[in-house]
Amino acid sequence: xxxxxxxxAADASWQAxxxxxxxxxxxxxxxxxxxxxxxxxxxxxxxxxHGADRVHVVEHELLVDYGPDAWADSLxxxxxxxxxxAVLAVGTDRGNEVxxxxxxxxxxxxxxNGVAVEPxxxxxxxxxxxxxxxxxxxxxxxxxxxxxxxxxAVAASPVRSSSDASTLLSAEESDPExxxxxxxxxxxxxxxxxxxxEVIGAGVTLSTAAVVVSGGRGVGSADGFDPLEDLAGLLxxxxxxxxxxxxxxxxxxxxxxxxxxxxxxxEIYIAAGISGAIQHWVGAMASKRILAINTDPEANxxxxxxxAVIADLHxxxxxxxxxxxxxxxxxxxxxxxxx
Length: 339
Hints:
The chain is of the alpha/beta class. The protein folds into two domains: 4-191, Rossmann fold, CATH 3.40.50.620; 211-328, Rossmann fold (3-Layer(aba) Sandwich). Helix content is 31%, strand content 22%. It has eleven helices and 15 strands. The strands form four sheets. The protein has a five-stranded mixed β-sheet with strand order 5-9-6-7-8, with helices on both faces. β14, α10 (300-304) and β15 (307-310) form a beta-alpha-beta unit. α3 packs across α4 (93-106) and α7 (226-234) runs parallel beside α11. The protein is elongated and about 60 Å long. It starts with a strand and ends in an 11-residue tail after the last helix.
């Protein structure tokens, strides 16, 4: 199942498709994707690039936006039609929500947040538990396997690039087969449906940023985030925070990194004044590199970081920003800071 928002696919969906390919090869079957609702046709080509041989486009007048009941009902009807060996989605809030609904309706077992799968008899799946602090190995015995792939457990990898598709294949050959499916939906399934949105930001987000600069309780106040905003701006990154910060009302919940916030996977995560409680670590552990800035050398984030500066963040962050400006901005503007 491809998670998308009115035709804009979640990058994590391509992780699930990437994870599905070796499973399909082991089972001797093909990979089929499903995109549900308004804008579904817009994700077809990219699904093909990531290995889908066929894309089921689910359309209905009630599917005007995301709704867990409507999506689950649609997916369940498609399962009856296609009779797949397994159904996968990415382990985001939406992916887990829809798959849990399908499992409940089918009275079938469901394994959430898998990180490794061996399709033996029975299937053996390693999944993350307890907020990422525990890896649990489970056996899944069911005619239909339902599971989600933990976000960032697999790096999305297309089977071909856009240039490959244009130079090596004809347009007909490069696109996957499209099968349009119209489910039989009762109006009651629209009781849970996105009705309105409030845009709180644009551009790069926490979940997609290559650079994240986060602050914890050690920042001291809402105004204390000004140096973090400055540094993130210089590095074309975004600002995050810990749960303690949102609890104090210094930053909105949308900025929170952690188990109950956003899980991130940037190229570098700069954690300033963050102790590194397990809930926060769960959200940050997929980062490629972590730089911790803290006055406490025994802090959990310092112990887990690739690099650490044991000093006052209020001195360190302005110094880093000043050095970036000195080295890379003779004209006073930063276009890009290379490795």
